[in-house]
Design a protein that fits this description.
Layout lengths: L1 E4 L2 E2 L5 H10 L6 E8 L4 E9 H15 L18 E7 L9 H22 L3 E3 L12 H4 L3 H5 L20 E5 L4 E7 L4 H16 L8 E8 L4 E8 L7 H13 L5 E7 L2 E2 L16 E2 L4
Parallel strand pairs: 5-7, 6-7, 12-13
Antiparallel strand pairs: 1-4, 1-5, 2-4, 2-5, 3-4, 8-10, 8-11, 9-10
Helix pairs in contact: 1-2, 2-3
């Protein structure tokens, strides 16, 4: 069974490592959707599809390359992180249909195999999340990231795999089967971070209040020093209910009132073909589109 995975790595300024990643992901057995680094986030997002055993083997190969370089004690970047392989979601790429029990079981088994290999190979604590979580801890990524890498170093942990202490350089990894989401950024042509933070806070509040325009939308306001801009970083965790274009249009309407322009928008990772018609304000490379229509 083919699976989609979107591993997020805590490096973004090492051109040689990024090149080696792309070489590994150029295999004929892999469909590469995305492999890009961000200097300000100091983060690299990869996204690829393959048969489940190839997904497991490839993530291990990437980890072997990355873990030689990454040391979170020296890591500086605006994106929250707790691990060198910070998060590794595994997705069954289906549009509106629920996966069958067999598909879900296979995906869960692949996630646990990968978690076990990461833990045993690198002495790395691995927390299962979302559909893989077993009731031992919080299941969502923001909760698991609370406090960041530094707070983990002195804690006794209860990971699903691996040792009870964070790895001193690699931290911990959060891994599991989750539903499809859309990760995107709206970059603003200002260095005033308060503008982005206020917008992100308003979005989070409207989501909490049950505003249907923002169901399942996570938002952060972040600085982009290398560009002289700020960013509203967004995750749409319920894309069947919440479309891209209305959210970008809402941001546009708010910033125009404070004489700020949208510099550009970014799609990070992948998007389903069924979501493309309502994402006209995002630049989308054809490779980023995961074909789900059959």
């Amino acid at each position: 069974m083919r699976l989609l995975t979107v591993p997020n790595w805590s490096f973004g300024r090492e051109a040689g490592l990024l090149r080696r990643f792309r070489e590994i992901l150029s295999s004929d057995l892999i469909t590469l959707h995305y492999c890009e680094a961000d200097i300000d986030h100091n983060r690299t997002v990869t996204a690829f599809s393959a048969e489940e055993d190839v997904v497991v083997d490839t993530v291990i190969r990437l980890a072997m390359e990355a873990f030689e370089t990454i040391d979170l004690n020296r890591h500086i970047g605006v994106h929250p992180r707790i691990g060198a392989l910070d998060v590794c979601p595994i997705v069954i790429p289906k549009p509106d249909k629920r996966p069958t029990d067999i598909q879900l079981m296979n995906a869960l088994a692949a996630a646990e195999k990968l978690a076990g290999l990461l833990a045993s190979t690198f002495q790395l604590p691995v927390f299962l999340y979302e559909k893989s979580e077993r009731g031992r801890h919080e299941a969502d990524l923001p909760s698991l990231r609370k406090g960041g890498f530094g707070a983990l170093l002195t804690k006794d942990l209860r990971p699903d795999f691996g040792p009870p202490r964070a790895h001193p350089q690699l931290g911990v990894t959060v891994l599991g089967v989750r539903d499809f989401l859309i990760a995107m950024n709206v970059n603003l042509a200002t260095e005033d971070l308060d503008v982005a933070k206020v917008l992100a806070r308003q979005i989070r509040q409207m989501r909490t209040d049950g505003d249907e325009r923002f169901l399942g939308v996570r938002a952060l306001g972040l600085p982009l020093a290398s560009r002289g801009q700020v960013q509203v970083s967004l995750n749409l965790t319920l894309p069947n209910l919440t479309a891209v274009d209305p959210i970008i249009e809402w941001v546009y309407e708010r910033v125009i009132g404070v004489n700020v322009k949208i510099a550009d928008t970014e799609l990070i990772g992948v998007i389903r073909d069924v979501d493309v018609p309502t994402a006209s304000r995002l630049p989308i490379d054809p490779a980023q589109i995961v074909v789900t229509k059959r």
